[in-house]
């Protein structure tokens, strides 16, 4: 019984910590998105619902550990990624090429888009529902099954 109580408090603590960390993150309709560095219109990349917007940094160790997860999700769902303060377009494209990532990416070299979304740390994933509203936000490490479950839930479109 003691272990169950401790586990309960740990889960509550982690939940409260997540809520605190996400308190300033944007909710509601997705703010305007600029085109990707390849010139593709970002809005079209999230027009098929559900979709994701993934904020990452080339300098972020946790982001590097979930690259495979994000790549797998982007094969099955639409979305766009946002490179936060990761250099100029050539730097970002070089990073994608070196890591064999086939992502559509917006270069947020000055952090202005991240500020609009309320992103103060990466990785951050915004999950968009069919009505164009942000339904879920995750901050930090995320599992593929966790993302897939949220996307599946939104695909049910009650």
Secondary structure topology:
Layout: H1 2-21, E1 28-29, H2 42-45, E2 51-56, H3 61-65, H4 67-76, E3 78-84, H5 89-98, E4 105-108, H6 112-117, E5 124-128, E6 133-139, H7 144-155
Parallel strand pairs: 2-3, 3-4
Antiparallel strand pairs: 1-6, 2-5, 5-6
Can you walk me through this structure?
With 158 residues, the protein is α/β, with parallel strands linked by helices. The chain has one domain (2-155): Glutaredoxin (3-Layer(aba) Sandwich). The protein has seven helices and six strands. It has helices spanning 2-21, 42-45, 61-65, 67-76, 89-98, 112-117, 144-155; strands at residues 28-29, 51-56, 78-84, 105-108, 124-128, 133-139. A six-stranded mixed beta sheet has the order 1-6-5-2-3-4. The radius of gyration is 16 Å and the shape is globular. The relative contact order is 0.20.
Can you give keywords for this protein?
6-stranded mixed β-sheet; Glutaredoxin; alpha/beta; single chain; 158 residues; globular
Task: Give a nutshell description of this structure.
With 158 residues, the protein is an alpha/beta fold. It has seven helices and six strands; from the N terminus they run αβαβααβαβαββα.
**H-E order:** HEHEHHEHEHEEH
Placed side by side, the strands forming the largest sheet appear as 1-6-5-2-3-4
Mean of residue pLDDT values: 86
The 3D shape can be described as globular
- Total beta-strand segments: 6
* Helix content, binned percent: 40-55%
**End-to-end separation:** 38 Å
Radius of gyration: 16 Å
- Quickly give the structural class: alpha/beta
Annotated CATH architecture: 3-Layer(aba) Sandwich
Look at the structure and name the CATH superfamily.
Glutaredoxin
The poorly predicted ranges are none
């Amino acid at each position: 019984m003691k272990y169950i109580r401790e586990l309960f408090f740990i889960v509550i603590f982690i939940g409260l910590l997540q809520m605190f960390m996400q308190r300033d993150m944007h909710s509601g309709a997705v703010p305007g998105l600029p085109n990707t560095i390849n010139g593709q219109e970002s809005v079209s990349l999230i027009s098929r619902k559900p979709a994701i917007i993934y904020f990452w940094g080339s300098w972020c160790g946790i982001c590097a550990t979930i690259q495979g997860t994000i790549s797998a999700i982007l094969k099955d769902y639409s979305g766009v990624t946002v490179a936060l303060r990761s250099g100029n377009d050539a730097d970002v494209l070089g990073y994608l090429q070196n890591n064999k990532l086939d992502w559509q990416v917006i270069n947020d070299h000055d952090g202005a888009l991240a500020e609009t979304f309320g992103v103060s740390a990466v990785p951050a994933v915004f999950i968009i529902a069919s009505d164009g509203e942000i339904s879920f936000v995750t901050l930090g490490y995320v599992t593929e099954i966790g993302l897939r479950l949220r996307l599946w839930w939104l695909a049910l479109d009650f």
